[in-house]
Records
---
Amino acid sequence: MSVQELEKEQAPKQAGFGLVAWLRWAWRTLTSMKTALILLFLLALGSVPGSLVPQRSVEPDKVARIYEQSPALAEWYDRLQLFEVFSSTWFAAVYLLLFTSLIGCIIPRTATFVRELRRKPPAAPKNLSRLPHSASFESDLGVSQAAWKLRRLRFRVVTGDGWVSAEKGYLREIGNLFFHVALLGILVAIGAGSLFGYRGNVLVVEGDGFANTVAAYDRFMPGNQVSAESLQPFSFTLSEFKVAYQIAGDKRGQALDYSAHLKVSDTPASPARDYELKVNEPLEVDGTQMYLIGNGYAPVFKVTDGKGQVAFEGPVPCLIEQKATMTSGCVVKVPDAQPSQLGFLLQFLPTSVPLTDGDHASAFPGELNPEVKILGAFSGDLGVRSGRPQSVYELAEPEVLKKLKPLVMGSSAPKPLAVGQSMELPDGLGRLEFTGVKEWITLQTSYDPGRFPALAAGATAVVAIALSLMIRRRRVFVRVSEGRVEVGGLTRTEGSAAGFAEEFSDIVKVLSAGEKDVR
């Protein structure tokens, strides 16, 4: 064998980077502090679209409006799951990665901290003058007396032959560890709320009631572990709803206060109690909260069909078209009218005033001169019995609307109806009467069992991060020999040397003070 072949055979071989090594690298990268901070930042950044883009679970009407006004934009929002940010796949992925990263950070940190607690302070160095902080003085102070004084200053103390070693600041590591545990607790609390909590939206008109059942909600979003039996069995009746508006000045028409008066029964057997529901002052029953999130008008109509029978009578919630004046669009469907079904497109004006062109508009959001403007009346099959779901705010789908027979349109429409007035339909098909005005409110129900645990974990995180930032690890060493005492000190926290100088000076003063009996 030649020398070259021998050297080639004895040369070190390059180690392979197999699957196990890649997995180890991935785990170390995921559980590093840098990765955890990046994931936490991404979680906060991912929450921003949830505040800027309307969410289906909270504002379904605004989502529908985006689809109407900008279909292409709405389609992209839907593809990116921006209408459902907090239940989206990408948000859940960041959430779970952060959860795993925190667990991977906490386990080794806990093991390291336990070892630190069990480890005694090291023996004092022989030359204390080389430490960042040092001092010496003449005294007959003994080892036991120095140890006693340092214990009084809450140091952990170890003594030896002519020396004392003391350490302090373990709360810094406790704060750091508890901060990570608190972050993990927040994630667990949020996850528990998603599994065992629920949310819902409901519209209630004055005089109507609500019972906390799945069927009573307009939109219900349960957690994976929620069933119909999980809901708290309370109910209430909306007695009255009031809105106070600014009546003069630059902010005329601005809402000042909202107040809904409820009769609440906490259980089916309990007596009703009065409750005033306001914005940011939710009704709470057994952990379930109901927030007031919207309001509008529900004019009351009475429709008599062509055979003289009352085919419809009751309030109709109207969709707000102009928030400043509360001008609202209303749809009345009468599928039981005879000899043909009837439908009406109406506009409610809370404070109706005539315009110069003969039209009418609302000048104030309050109910000062309520009138209903007739936009259109139709007869024919509305398609409500086709089995396909329909919106209560739309008369019919476009293809169905084309087949309806217009009875009143445009110039043939009468003047706006005031309360108590009616409009006769042509060909003896019936009559529409405007009989009164009620108001409606929209409520958001929220039951989140993780709410208080998340609050406790958040408070713990604040206290823990304060401890980790304000407290520093430091060591103090004392050597006693032949009437002379040497003291040295150093910090174990980077950047805290300046703050330790004053404390070290105080420690030296305590040690050099008059002798005391050791007790």
---
Amino acid sequence: MEEFEALLNESFEIDTPSEGSVVKGRVLAIEAGQAIIDVGYKMEGRIDLKEFANPGEQPDLKPGDEVEVFLRQVENARGEAVISREMARREEAWDRLEKAYADEERVEGAIFGRVKGGFTVDLGGAVAFLPGSQVDVRPVRDAGPLMGLKQPFQILKMDRRRGNIVVSRRAILEESRAEQRAEVIANLHEGQTVDGVVKNITEYGAFVDLGGVDGLLHVTDMAWRRVNHPSEILAIGETVKVQVIKINKETHRISLGMKQLQDDPWDSVEGKFPIESVHTGRVTNITDYGAFVELEPGVEGLVHVSEMSWTKKNVHPGKIVSTSQEVEVMVLEIDSAKRRVSLGLKQTQRNPWEVFAETHPEGTEVEGEVKNITEFGLFVGLPGDIDGMVHLSDLTWEGRGEDVIGDFRKGDVVKAKVTEVDIEKERISLSIKAMDGDPFADAIGGVKRGSIITVEVTKIEDGGIEVTYEGMKSFIRRSDLSRDRAEQRPERFGVGDKIDVRVTNVDSKTRKLGLSIKAREIAEEKEAVEQYGSSDSGASLGDILGAALKGDR
């Protein structure tokens, strides 16, 4: 009996399936949207038909079909087995997916729903998450055409305990794309001319599809002329002819060019634009250091800020020219190797200092507005948008310039005479005091060194006497009052006395005359000796001077 009981219990354990396992069953009937399934050992259970359907499909099930189900409970309150087809499919799928994940194999699935951050994918019983960034190599705006479509996926990570699976469709596409790129690139070579379709446009260039592989057409390689934005000459979807400039076999990056299929305008620059020739061009770009002018498509030259204007110094180029403006420029220098042309804007106009020198020779009177006042003089605006300077020393004949410069204000209109024009240094010297003539020159007239003039005593001092001549003041020192030392006394003269003196010096800079009574007496004595005799012959000086005075009478 003990042996029979043991065999009976063993048969029960073998025939009775354990809860939590997958068992085989047979469909007995389908009623009320459910399938009645016999799982053996006289156990039956019910499963909703929807558990037998793939996402987006109708269930294909009929009585007599054998199916695998998951036994959750041997018997419920109604005496039925609690079974699940979905859980059975999930267990089966997890076993299959874990093996595929370990072997890095692709798995087949279908996108069937949208969730936050991505989509849900049915992998034949297991539900996986497909992040939005892993749908395609480029952002997908409409995922409708992909819904319910059987397609391969790559498992990125999975956790059976938590029931998490993350898959990628992008990895499959990138792998296929890499294979396709490698095949296309193998058939390309540098210098080859190919047709492509513009797929995308950015600020720095355009991506061109060469039949499975994209190449970058940089904005600087689109045309020989300056291109501000690729959209000026290209449109998305447009078919273009390009040349393969460079291929990087490691990164599979391809550089393309369009201008390389056209003649290089720099090959004929020196012949078309000889040095010092004048041409009309268009301003294409303005910077702090100058303006770029297009002479012809593909050929640009720089007008440096120093070559823009004769008169406007330290001014931003944007205040002299504007973008797209037509201007006349002169070719100053060409460097074909560096593809540079130096241009001049001011050279197309005459030097205003040369023009002024021709129209306003020295001594010409001019009138202008005081533009600026500095510690060393005035700047006066002149014709030709240039300035002339009146130095402190040229403000007045009397007194110091520092004392009278305060009488002038910006905006005052003044008259002056041109005293010097230096074209090289771009300087024009003016004189306001010259407008009234030179009172010193007028006063001395033909007086020169050695002349005898009559002056009037105006002041007696210990060191000498102050005298005037035609309104010009001079000072005769004590030592010059007489050749006789005893007579060198200032007090022997009186204010108002008129005396004859000899001019010993004429200083135009200090505007003073050097005068001496002593020099006059010595000169008279010398002249008398020459005319009336010599003291060496026995005649006394008194005799000689007496004869000279008698001769004068």
---
Amino acid sequence: MVQRLRAPRPGWRAYADTVVVGSGVAGITAALAARQAGSVLLVTKARLKDGSTRWAQGGIAAALGVGDSPEAHMRDTLVAGAGVCDEDAVRILVTEGPAAVRRLIALGAEFDKTADGSIALGREGGHLADRIAHAGGDATGKEISRALIAALEHTIGEVEVIDHALVLDLLKDADGGAAGVTVHVMGEGARDGVGAVHAKAVVLATGGMGQVFDATTNPSVATGDGVAMALRAGAEVADLEFVQFHPTVMWLGGAARGQQPLISEAVRGEGAHLVDGSGVRFMVGRHPLAELAPRDVVAKGIMRRMAETGEPHMWLDARTGVAEFSEEFWQHRFPTILESCLKHGIDPARDLIPVAPAEHYASGGVRTDIWGRTSIPRLYACGEAACTGVHGANRLASNSLLEGLVFAERIGADLAKGLPWTETPVPVEAPEGVQDVLLEPSVMAEVQHTMTAGAGVLRSAESLDRTADELERLAARTADEPHLEAWEATNLHLLASALVKGAALRNETRGSHWREDFPDSADRWLVRLAHRLDPVTGRLVTEKQPLRSAEMDGVKP
């Protein structure tokens, strides 16, 4: 049975050739690129600058340096992805990436430079070359967001923006293709409350779903709204079991909830060490790259050492005297992290920084082909909301900003091939066979707690079965009164259910998916797990699919 969120009837309408949902690097790049196909309306949940992009510290990875190459970048990406990357998508990412970064620079993004005026390139975990371009030391995301928003502001009359708007559900035409979205504007003005945005194509760039766990580096708006909307509409989502937990998130105590301060991998790239409470560098000997191993390896190393010692966290040593660190270096290279540390009473030039893994990035999302097309005609997805297959089982550090740029531009190119001509907008009333769903707002906190306990860094059949049972129990806590917190809780519950189902099915350890009861990888799991809602029962159906992205059957621009 097709599902949609319970919501009031739309009280206003808007029209555009393309509607883009999301305002991070993927969303704004898609909006700028979609101008080739006509008018664009961009919908964002908060303000333009409030997405996940501005929190990106490390940088953007691309083969820009002397001696580096797209082939080397591809090898590092495939190694990090642990055998389940889509190689076609990765090849596109690394070959089109350098030009995409240069176009970003042409838009006005200013990256840090060396003394000779070339782009300063750093290194992060999993990279065997210096290829991480950064801005403002550790404020890369903030600078990229600034440049893209400035470019957007110069498109007067071409891109309309509706902010403080939560996307609810997809509008579909008689043939089952995307025809717009319903949204709820949080505020008062010419448009407020629930409305319908009619469009010939829809681009989802709604970011991640970090709020499905207790602790995350994601902002509070990251509740997986676009991915949940696509799933309810009948689209396939994939790779949800591959959730990347960043190994070095500042530990603020066992009771800390929500967005936590990130200590960028670039700090380790500059020579910082991980140590336990006795000062032992426990990553040495666990992997040839020690602290600069891929993120899943470092996160597992930290969790194992915590279990061995009984400590609630490990420590990051970036004090003066370690590698090139000094007070001046901290101020120049990592001013954002320095400010965050000082805010919490830690002077990183003198003190060890307490760190522990926390949810950071969803490698999965709405499954797409190499042009960003989903299994629903004229519904596209890019950025963290999409599953292009680029990241496989574990995203290589700083590939996410690049993925947002490259595949958003490809969506624009596909849209430019031509959109269908429509005479009238589709009706907004729900057709027969559609089930309204809505859960109590209090479900959100319980989803976060049970997911952290049973489907976090460490997983097993027992913990996942327990989590699935709890999610099933929470599904009975329905609500009648639609509002923001209830919609977010419903979205997170749906995605948590799909994540747990995929994690329980994948009986192996691979990349960021760590099964204590299946510690090894197995060739039979060199597949992608895709989820959809059964159109008759409304229940989740999960199936194995090939890794490579063939063009979506029946999907036309």
